[in-house]
Specification:
CATH topology: Ribosomal Protein L22, Chain A
Radius of gyration: 24 Å
Order of helices and strands: EHHHEEEEH
Distance between the termini: 43 Å
CATH class: Alpha Beta
Strand order of the largest sheet: 1-5-2
Number of domains: 1
Helix content: 25-40%
Structural class: alpha+beta
CATH superfamily: Ribosomal protein L22/L17
Number of helices: 4
CATH architecture: Alpha-Beta Complex
Low-confidence stretches: none
Strand content: 25-35%
Largest sheet: 3 strands, antiparallel
């Protein structure tokens, strides 16, 4: 059985409300990475871009840092949490100022995939190395 590895990606401060981002996240939760990227490319919501970026980042982390096969990647965790809120005011009639909050989101993506088996060194390569070592002596 192949050994598996989990890679993470965490994006903070996405300038959209968590409720809107989680609508898009629910479309791709639990799917393979390849399917998720196709779905997000054709989703007409602006929250699809940061979710897609987070998934691509987790995929790149798995492939480049941990030698995981990119074809076997599956999204195991995709959680959206509330980020920091900025307190702002909007002008209203009669010189008033009404408070409101600019909401932000944090996106956590974990992908799991099979680790590529290490390539074994062939006899020809070993023979060349041993011959080169003998010649240098």
């Amino acid at each position: 059985m192949a050994e598996t590895y989990t890679a993470k990606s965490y994006i903070k401060g996405v300038d959209q409300a968590p409720r809107k981002v989680s609508l898009v996240a629910s479309l791709v939760r639990g799917r393979t990475v390849a399917d998720a990227l196709v779905i997000l490319a054709h989703t007409p919501k602006s929250a699809a871009k940061p979710v897609k970026a987070a998934i691509e980042s987790a995929k790149a982390n798995a492939i480049n840092n941990h030698n995981v096969d990119g074809k076997t990647l599956v999204i195991t965790t995709l959680s959206i949490t509330a980020g920091t809120r900025l307190k702002r005011y909007i002008p209203a009639s009669r010189g008033r100022a009404l408070p409101f909050q600019k909401k932000s989101s944090n996106i956590l993506v974990e992908v799991t995939g099979d680790i590529k088996p290490k390539k074994s060194v062939t006899k020809k390569v070993e023979d060349k190395k041993s011959e080169a070592a003998k010649e240098t002596k």
